[in-house]
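Reply to dn_fold:

You asked what the input looked like. This is it:
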Amino acid sequence: MADKIVLAYSGGLDTSVACKWLQEERGYEVHCLTVDLGNLPDVDSARERGLSAGAVSVDLVDAKEDFLRYFVFPALGANVVYEGRYPLATALGRPLIAKLLVDKAREIGAVAVAHGCTGKGNDQVRLDVGVQTLAPDLTIVGTQRENQMSRDEALRYAAKHGIAVRQTAASLYSTDENLWGRSIEAGLLEDPWVSPPEDVYAWTRPLDRTPAQPVEVEIRFEKGVPVALDGERLDPVALVQRLSNLGGEHGIGRIDMVENRLVGIKSREIYEAPAAVILLDAHRALEELTLSKQQVRWKSLVGQEYADLIYNGLWFTSHHRDLSEYVQSTQRHVTGDARMRLWHGTVMTMGRRAERSLYSEELATYSDGDQFDQSHAQGFIKLHGLQAQVQAHRQLLQEHTDLLHLASGED
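and this is what came back:
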């Protein structure tokens, strides 16, 4: 009897080819696991492709809400974006997929798991490290990096074995989608000088087709988690999907960047992430009211570390747990509303309010009712500058005098 293997199956070209290859070349009994993170518009056809490729079973797990609650929203609390731009949609989905692969392997008694990630990308690292951490006894087969098929070769392999796939030789973009964002790469996009053709975008309108008038949306947060739009409480999936549709209509969320991959190469990536861009801006606006100066500055450093950790596939680590505990602590007073204007591809904060805001109009105002005692300023400035004054008098002035002596040739 053949050993069982669980294949992370998307229904696309690479994993459909992988399903047959694992049987033909490695002798496994293949069980496909399709994880729906909001990226499967046609689940039935994906299941049919898996069965046509020879899988014994093709199981679907609806993980959309878990994805948002336990992966996306904690990252939102940290304001994480990789290299200042990428909201990490694909990267955030990988640790959840790794966990579900392990769960399925345990359920059916599989000895291995497999994925169709390339040997030059980041996703292989995220899935491998996740599985190795959770189940070090399982063998991991990276089908794409082991069979090393080009996309042309994969298309020919699929045709030879009668596997129906969506990609064609004329359209070789590689895409990945979930509720938090969509990524597009390969094909013409591999030349960073080439402008992205309009057909690479599926969620966002070009600016010349966006509404002539802006729209405002009020987003409610409770302890850093978005819970309502325009006064209507929504579950996480409905909230993110509604914002994604609204933002896409106004051309928001297009990102074209050359990012530094973990494996050491630069890669040109196109992203669409309307909901992520809107919620990140709204969350930061609310934190401006509710976090102290020191919290904001330290949290920005934590956010960079958090983003690198997610991007590099280190979700299941003690370092992640420690960072997330700090971030969660910073969110305990981030409850309130942010009013955002969406227009021609831009997001602008129009207003924000919070129940426990640190902003005091009585202290900030220059009008009548000002409670800031300006008579204290002179003494404060003197104490604030005391250290600089002492150092300048005792050290810097002497150094300047020494330099003048050297320049004049004096002993």
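The two ends are 93 Å apart (CA to CA).
Hope that clears it up.
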